[in-house]
């Protein structure tokens, strides 16, 4: 057991419950020197904790400070350091290094509490043989660490959704920490096995020489012993004649190695079982959520259905309004097309009437010119009232003949039409008719 400097002195007056610190070490507790432990509801600070300080050393120091005397070995084994995080407790292995466990929590050390508790029998009569007691201690610690966090924490009767998530996160964290602790323990056991094997190999080299393993394989008449030696790589190989001469401590070390191997096998099975339990719990939680959602539907679907119906009704009204407006637009467009067709027919009719009037005017002008060309013939005066030939145009106001100088048009650059707005055509006589003083006005 490693020596702890300053372990006993701080606990001599720690009954008041105040934190006690070593005066020579004011540094932070999470680094190297101080670890808080709760004993009977009182927080006490253990100073002088080194890198190799184990939980068994810490228990020994705490019991020595509490009882003012050195505790026996069975009393130390009957107590353990229990690691508490929120609602989860986990007893630590006596061989675990307390400083490494404390440093593993990192920023969550404020939520972690180490407590000294009794986990074994109180009297030596309840303790079995040493070998059996040691194996039972390993098995009990492993079984306690394998308890699922669901059974360690108190569960309320009605669990809300937030509590379920919190419990699931807690389960995951505890499982991860348990697996990490078991892996650390496996590595420690492997290191210990390697140490014992190397130590036994050195001891056999000192007793039988450096070539004892070769002589064991080459010896005739001992196949069983050679097979045994080859099975454990020379660690458990011994000559038949040398067996009675082996020291007692070799037998105890071999038993310890066997126990360690059995413990490793149990730990591997525990890790596998923990992973299976975690998977089954997650599947059960998901199935429970689905069952509750299917059995007790909330009012949200009804509200969503009502809103959807209202939206459909509003869209139907908007669609009907737009359809009516489209129909009105189609009727208006049809009416516009009809009016446009009528206007086009009317325009064609007016164009035909204009062509007929132009032809009639040309015919009358040609006849008048032919009459005027005869010698000694005088043209009759123009009628007082104009002659209307188009029934589609309203009658214009009374026409007053204008002077010849005002009504004469030059026909050299045009075709005879001078008024295109009212549809009237004014064709003037030639230069001979202008000299005679006659003006021909034809109103169409």
Automatic annotation (TrEMBL):
Signal peptide region: none
Origin: domain of life: Eukaryota
Entry keywords, A to Z: Coiled coil
Biased composition (Low complexity): 417-429
Annotated Basic residues bias: 130-139
InterPro entries: N-RASSF, RA_dom, Ubiquitin-like_domsf
SUPFAM superfamilies: Ubiquitin-like
Residue ranges of coiled coil: 319-367
Region (Disordered): 123-146, 223-257, 375-444
Annotated Ras-associating domain residues: 52-121
GO annotation terms (biological process): signal transduction
PANTHER family noted in UniProt: FI07216P, RAS-ASSOCIATING DOMAIN CONTAINING PROTEIN
UniProt-recorded name of the protein: Ras association domain-containing protein 10
Native organism: Amphibalanus amphitrite
């Amino acid at each position: 057991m490693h020596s702890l400097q300053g372990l006993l002195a701080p606990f001599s007056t720690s009954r008041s419950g105040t934190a006690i610190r070593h005066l020579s070490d004011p540094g932070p507790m999470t680094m190297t020197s101080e670890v808080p432990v709760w004993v009977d509801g009182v927080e006490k600070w253990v100073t002088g904790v080194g890198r190799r300080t184990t939980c068994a050393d810490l228990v020994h120091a705490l019991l020595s400070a509490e009882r003012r005397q050195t505790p026996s070995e069975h009393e130390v084994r009957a107590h353990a350091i229990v690691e508490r995080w929120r609602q989860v407790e986990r007893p630590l292995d006596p061989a675990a290094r307390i400083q490494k466990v404390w440093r593993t929590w990192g920023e969550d050390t404020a939520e972690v509490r180490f407590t000294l508790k009794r986990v074994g029998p109180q009297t030596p009569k309840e303790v079995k043989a040493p070998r059996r007691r040691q194996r039972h201690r390993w098995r009990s610690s492993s079984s306690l660490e394998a308890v699922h966090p669901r059974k360690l924490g108190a569960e309320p009767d009605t669990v809300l959704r937030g509590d379920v998530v919190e419990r699931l996160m807690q389960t995951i964290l505890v499982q991860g920490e348990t697996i990490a602790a078991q892996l650390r323990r496996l590595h420690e056991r492997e290191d210990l096995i390697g140490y014992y094997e190397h130590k036994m190999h050195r001891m056999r080299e000192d007793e039988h020489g450096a070539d004892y393993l070769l002589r064991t394989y080459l010896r005739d008449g001992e196949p069983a012993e050679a097979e045994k030696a080859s099975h454990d790589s020379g660690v458990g190989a011994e000559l038949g004649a040398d067996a009675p001469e082996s020291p007692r401590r070799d037998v105890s070390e071999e038993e310890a190695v066997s126990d360690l191997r059995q413990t490793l096998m149990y730990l591997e099975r525990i890790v596998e079982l923990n992973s299976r339990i975690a998977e089954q719990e997650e599947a059960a939680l998901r199935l429970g959520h689905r069952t509750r959602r299917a059995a007790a539907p909330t009012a949200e679907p009804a509200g969503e259905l009502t809103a959807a119906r209202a939206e459909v009704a509003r869209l139907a009204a908007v669609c009907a309004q737009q359809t009516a407006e489209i129909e009105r637009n189609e009727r208006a467009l049809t009416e516009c097309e009809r009016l446009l067709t009528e206007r086009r027919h009317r325009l064609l009719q007016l164009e035909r009437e204009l062509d007929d009037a132009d032809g009639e005017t040309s015919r009358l002008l040609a006849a008048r010119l032919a009459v005027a060309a005869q010698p000694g013939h005088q043209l009759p005066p123009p009628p007082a009232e104009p002659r209307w030939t188009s029934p589609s145009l309203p009658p214009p106001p009374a026409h007053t003949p204008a002077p010849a100088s005002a009504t004469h048009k030059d026909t050299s650059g045009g075709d005879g039409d001078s008024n295109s707005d009212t549809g009237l055509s004014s064709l003037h006589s030639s230069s001979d008719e202008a000299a005679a003083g006659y003006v021909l006005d034809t109103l169409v």
